[in-house]
Amino acid sequence: MSLEIKSGIAALAAGALFGAGLALSGMMNPAKVTGFLDFAGIRTGTWDPTLAFVMAGGLAVFAVGFRLSNRHSRPLFAPKYLAPAPGRVDWRLILGATMFGVGWGIAGLCPGPALAALVTAQIDIVIYFAAMTAGMALFAAFDRNS
């Protein structure tokens, strides 16, 4: 079996597992996410800390995987590791992180959960996803570095 096919199967399996985790944890529910982000309980009435456990669990899995990946010279299903350049913080990163955070706080969704939540066919999620996709396309069309 070729490396491309193995890589595709691994990506499909990882994506399916990630989507299942998003559904199981409630991350596809914008109200659950905004309840977590609303520390003062202003919008939702009470703060919902449950997604902190989801994040902690994800961080623990990442830490183990990252530690194990350091033992290999290359990934199992790819020719090389793809890692960002260390220490590269520029206006694009700061602006992107800010837009991500503001969008997550307002809508209660970010790209992964929005994609997974498309299966619910809720109109607000479809609109969010369309706007997000349009924004990425506009950025790609006008950015000189992409």
Briefly say what this structure is.
This protein has six helices and no strands. It has helices spanning 3-25, 30-37, 50-69, 91-107, 111-117, 123-142.
The tally of strands reads 0
Coarse structural class: mainly alpha
Uncertain runs: none
Helix content: 55-70%
Shape: globular
The helix/strand order is HHHHHH
Total of helices: 6
The total number of structural domains is 1
Gyration radius over CA: 18 Å
Question: How much beta, percentage-wise?
Answer: under 5%
Ends: how far apart? Answer: 32 Å
Mean pLDDT: 86
The biggest sheet amounts to: none
Describe this structure in words.
There is one protein chain. The chain is mostly helical and 146 residues long. It has six helices and no strands. Helix 2 (30-37) crosses helix 4. The mean pLDDT is 86.
Note the main attributes of this structure.
mainly alpha, 6 helices, 146 residues, single chain
Secondary structure blueprint with pairings:
Elements: H1 3-25, H2 30-37, H3 50-69, H4 91-107, H5 111-117, H6 123-142
Helix pairs in contact: 2-4, 5-6
